[in-house]
Specification:
Structural class: mainly beta
Strand content: 35-45%
CATH superfamily of the largest domain: Immunoglobulins
Distance between the termini: 57 Å
Number of domains: 2
Order of helices and strands: EEHEEEEEEEEEEE
Radius of gyration: 26 Å
Number of helices: 1
CATH topology of the largest domain: Immunoglobulin-like
Largest sheet: 5 strands, mixed
Length: about 200
Amino acid sequence: MKGPRAGYESHSYRNAVLSQHHKITYAIQPRGTRRTLSIVSWPERAAHAPQTPLYAFGYGLSYADFAYSNLKLSSARLQAGESLTVEVDVRNTAKIAGDEVVELDLGCPAGRVCFGPPATPSSPVLLRALRGFTRVHLAQGETRHVTFVLTARDLSQVTEQGEHIVLPGHFAVAVGGSSDGGSHAIAEFDIAGSQVLPR
């Protein structure tokens, strides 16, 4: 910051030691009025910031609009180690042809716990993970049937020891064009038992 302009008071920062993790807002006002110096830590600002991204993963990949329907799972209950087949219909509802990147996310239903007891107390908990995607080109009004196969590895999580393990619990599969869930088709299923997978 350069020296004070004519008619304005100067201010010394000799005794102010500020870390790079703070944002400084300093407003210089005419002599005789109150000036403002505010120091706000970035962690504090982050704690009060919205907890959703401005643009979800997959946002804006097409000019056309798409609708998802008839989501079906091969089973509503799996034994650990089994695969899951996911099928869904994607329809182009726009007046133009377009490409859609169909994304499949694995996570837990809203307000529920994804997993049973973890393999270890420090094992990471999966909140949502991209487990498949494919690009389809659809003409105006066209519907395409899309199929994903989730293997045991797709349904697993990785422990701190680097092991892939399938844990029991209640899960949700969401299929849509982005991770925000706005146009997703959602289905739920359960996994019984646990299994450590080979590396």
